[in-house]
């Protein structure tokens, strides 16, 4: 079963609660949070207080994608705020094993994120101990970018590596996923599909969520 994870980065923040409820009614499985600090990526989004408020009302698992420097300093705050999945980038993280163990010790699922320009073989070692890999299909920092076509081949290669090393690891894919390519991304091997503008740029968020969900599980 393929899981749909709307990314609230592209939501209308004035109507955030209403739009999240529409995602839930439409059949979303996970809620994805793009956390940006203006240093790791050239954009600033939101921090744990936003997750904390949403957690009180939202039945879905909250997935924190941390695009921040020194993520270890904030991981506890995100888990305390309600994140049950936390992912950190492999790029620039010299102590990825320690970071992953920290996430797991707090009771959350741990993921490692890989940018489009980073060779997949850097994941070989971490596959032994992560719960999921978040493969970026755009360069992180902004919603609404175009899916990088080579990502499909990278998903297939990652799937093959996972099959060889640790088949329980899930593949999450993030960036430029829309109704015209979501099926291809799922067929390439993605288990969790993150969609931002492909949901929130539509006037009827509930109907669009339902449509993407039905495309995923045909
Ligand atoms: C990019 C983020 C993505 C982004 C997805 O830095 O990690 O989650 O919000 O948005 P779309 O689906 O619009 O590419
Ligand atoms: Zn993301």
Automatic annotation (TrEMBL):
One of its GO terms (molecular function) is D-ribulose-phosphate 3-epimerase activity. It catalyses: D-ribulose 5-phosphate = D-xylulose 5-phosphate. Pathway: Carbohydrate degradation. The active site is at residues 34, 174. Its EC number is 5.1.3.1. GO terms for biological process: pentose catabolic process; pentose-phosphate shunt. Keywords: Carbohydrate metabolism, Cobalt, Isomerase, Manganese, Metal-binding, Zinc. PANTHER family: RIBULOSE-5-PHOSPHATE-3-EPIMERASE (PTHR11749). HAMAP family: RPE. This is Ribulose-phosphate 3-epimerase.
